[in-house]
Amino acid sequence: MPFFKYFPPERIDVIERGLLRFTPANEFNDPFECLSDSRLIEDPRWQRQIEDHCVTAMMADPEVRRRNSHLNSADFETEVRRVSRERYALRMPELKALARDQLAAARLPFRILCLAQVSPESADAFLMWGHYTKNHYGFVVEFDDNHQWFTNHLPITGEPHDAGPVQYQQSRPGWDFDAAGNAQPRREFVFTKSPHWAYEHEYRLIRFAGTPGLEAANVHSLVPFPLEAIRAITLGINCVAETRDRIVAACLRHRLSDVRVRQAQIHPDEFLLTVRDCNPAEELQP
Fold it and tell me: Is the pTM of this model over 0.90?
């Protein structure tokens, strides 16, 4: 299915300059974006790792060993583990808050391009138009999902890109443990959202700060993309003449003759939007 991106009118640079914005995960309008749950700290395997680190640290501390010289190594380890478990349980609320802050910080390197799989004339698009195009003053770009620029984002081992559809579910994703017993975040935490957002039918392209093609100095990284990946542009029902003319002029300047320029309109009777094709050359006539 084609990809669609809903834009406010000021984002004409997408067409004029061929730039798409990969936004930091912590700056979306969803506060739960790329935020896994903190149940990891309740997992006995994780608590055992904390105990192991505590034992290692205490064993290596000469002052601690001196104060507990009456205990042999086995009894000392048993005591350290007992105290660690008691204190861990008491600190659970504090540890939860700490985990929340650390998980929020861990998402900072992610840069995300959010695309919808909702065509602009469908009834499912009403909220998309209202939320992302400044009350229908903007426009919608339809992309060819089979274009190489998009397929090159598919996950490949060793490559710094990822892509996939968003899954909508009630619970936030958690963590797994690898064969060595180390905690690892699930890949799904980047591709999971609350069912409240299901109307977007979102598909994501993921990049990471500092990887090729992503300017690390620019937080809202504008990434070049091939304009030939555009299939169609649909103007909102409130799109003003200046926005329309700049979009049409950009299509003519870049020789995007295969791109359909369309105008959304209100259906005369139903809660529906209809679209009509525009002729770019005619649209610029006075």
Answer: no
